[in-house]
Predict the structure.
Amino acid sequence: MQKQNFDNQMISIIENLREKGEKPHLVLHACCGPCSSSVLERLCEAFLVTVFFYNPNIHPKTEHDRRLFELERFLKEFPLAKKNGVDLFVADYNPEDFFRSTRVREEPHLQTEGEKGERCRRCYKFRMKKAAEFAKTVDAKWFTTTLSVSPYKDSQKINEIGKELSSDVKFLPSDFKKRGGFLRSTQLSDEFGLWRQDYCGCCYSIATRDKQNGTN
């Protein structure tokens, strides 16, 4: 895919929907509360949003549950989410989904990659695929993910995957870090007292964090 401005594409789609007076159902794959915050601020008045929490990559389970708790709390407290009826669906937590879909056990060189590599691309894809499948079951017209709000995620790969998965349900192109999106997520996290994690999620990203911090 040729390099594109995915943020401008999203803005154009939203403006077109508003001109038509439409507010379609969108499924938003979310990785955590902080990353969801500024994304929901941009989306929940343009779409009827169902937040879809599916992250079997997150290790350990206590970490997964803590991120989910912060997301649940944010949705209950964030005025725009309450005003626009944002709801939440929590998918099953099965870490084997991560290992099976990324094949990191079979291809051990993937275990030592930094962020934005092939392991991460595969991790984006299986979670986004699950979100697209869920969107179809609830008759949503659109789906997207919060992942691109992070400066550590590859928005090009995320949007390539979204386009590939787009069929019955359309993928909303996005690069949520643009227009100060990541900074806004930190501001909202501070405003609502959200706990922010210090690694991406999987057991291999913990090792990367520890190496960067000089603790292993």
User: Anything to note?
Assistant: The radius of gyration is 17 Å.
